[in-house]
Queue: 3 jobs
Job 1
Amino acid sequence: MKAEFYQILSRQVEALLSSEDDLIAGMANFSALINDNLENLNWAGFYILKNDQLVLGPFQGKVACTRIPLGKGVCGTAAANNDTIRVADVHQFDGHIACDSASNSEIVIPVRQDNRIIAVLDIDSPMLDRFDQDDQIGLELLVKQFEKCLFG
């Protein structure tokens, strides 16, 4: 069921971004698509890697942390490790950065161009354990579609 849902979203990403070459515009519409289609979210957006730190990019949600050092919090750790991190309870994540106290679970997926990280997609939920393995696989598929559309 979730696999089909994410396949449909992947086609929507392709339709939305296949003729887009501006990273910020693509990130803005991608985060809006995620926010509009996934349930139980309170934040969806990007942090862009600049000078060894993550800087807030386009997002949907409440005011957010502006800068995150590499290796700090879920976003910084995902970027430093070059890997997706799925956290069932952010309050149990050592070094969690609480930008929104309503967030209880989180998934962060690296965005790559030419095999190097340029950003991370960060999605938060007020629910504990909101993201499962199927969500991770589906969201990684969407990020790959995003990369394909914007970077070729």
Job 2
Amino acid sequence: MENNNLFNDPIQRTESSFTGENAIAKSFLSNVFAYMASALTITGAIAYWFGTDMDLISMLFNAEGGMNALGYIVTFAPFGFVLLISAGFQKFSSTVLLGLFLIYSLLMGLSLSTIFLVYTGSSIFTTFFITAATFAVMAVLGYTTKTDLTKFGSILMMALIGIIIASVVNIFMGNAMMDLIISVLGVLIFTGLIAYDVQKLKRIGSGQEYGHEMTNKLAIMGALSLYLDFVNLFLFMLRFLGDRK
């Protein structure tokens, strides 16, 4: 009799439902972070391999020191892959999306290899670990906070569009003060976006109506979002913490 009453207790049913959703969200986020970590490992390994081998990295430049055709392809191809992955979300299978994501991470490694020509290896590694620590703190905050970050996410996205426009304008102006302001804002924006994206992914992961294939697709897209947050935060931090050669 007691078991029957306990089974029908609405509080217990609510707690059971919450526990189930929480477990699903954790499983989903585990996949997201696994995909992200794999992509970052590929990017880091390729960047280090090319960036520390002058024979390899010289393949991206011509005799005058400017970028050759391969260098421009390596620089701009990642943008194309992001657009392709986003546009193909509904049409491509999760296997194809994952393959494109891993190829994208390889191309990003080639693109980022040039930072070894500008900054010392020790400052690059130091900045990477600081970025990783910052990412971990903000990810935990985004997962555990009870505050709805949706409105902050909207503000951060508008601010991101603003610094992209400002960065393009500053390419032609070459204003050092504007570059500093953009760098500071970039660090703040991507630090906030990490918490926002993790909270958003936690909510997505709690949705039990998704099938296995759609869940994998969403996990890959979530990994791409967090990957971009991490890489951009790293690059903005490198402007402050990186020791130039």
Job 3
Amino acid sequence: MKAIVLSAGQGSRLLPLTVSKPKCLIDFSGRSLLEWQLEALHCGGVTEVVVVTGFAADQVETMLALRTPVGLKVRTVFNPFYKVADNLATCWLVRQEMAGPCLVLNGDTLVEPSIVRQLIEAPASAITVTVDRKSQYDADDMKVCATGRRLTAIGKTLDAESVDAESIGFLRFSPEGAARFIEQIEQVMRTADGVKLWYLSAINALAQAGVDVQIESIEGLQWGEVDFHPDVARARTITAAWAARWLPQVPVRPAAGA
């Protein structure tokens, strides 16, 4: 299983923490955000990761050359348009990496290995969107409407009364689902607004066109999105517990050729 991690952005909402380093290299309990992602993916069964870089790409590449979980193949793809384009364009840039079954993980989402395993083992579908549920949702949540397991809509502006869950920014694509997704983003990138859109807008369009998009709920498992300064403190609390529980099991060595 291959995973693509979208880590091109600076994370300007976290300034001054990100004034000279990207969000993915912020320290959380002794490991950067990206290191936690790689270790969770590896423990969860992923064997290959493609990291999309942008802001301060050289710093990310240096970290990867020094700290890579044993047995995990990691490559980078540089996105030169990270300053002017949103993540739909990032997915378009790496569309050739999605030729087979794959996972896509937002660069600001921390997940524990159990979430990775659950997503990989979820019932077959063209596209699977990992979700969590809570009592109420705010304006920044990527909201999800669903009928049973079938996703019917996804977006930040959905009517709160109809929302069933929120996307945590972690998806699985079958080969057929990836092909439909690539076709959709290629069409959208030909429009005037293509570079300004989130890739989940393409998932919304596919779901409404009848493509088999399902949800996988990870209620009760630990994850965290790092967007704003309060998120940093919460993520450090979560990762401190992870460090004691499962991090020592993950041997790390310099990547080949480092």
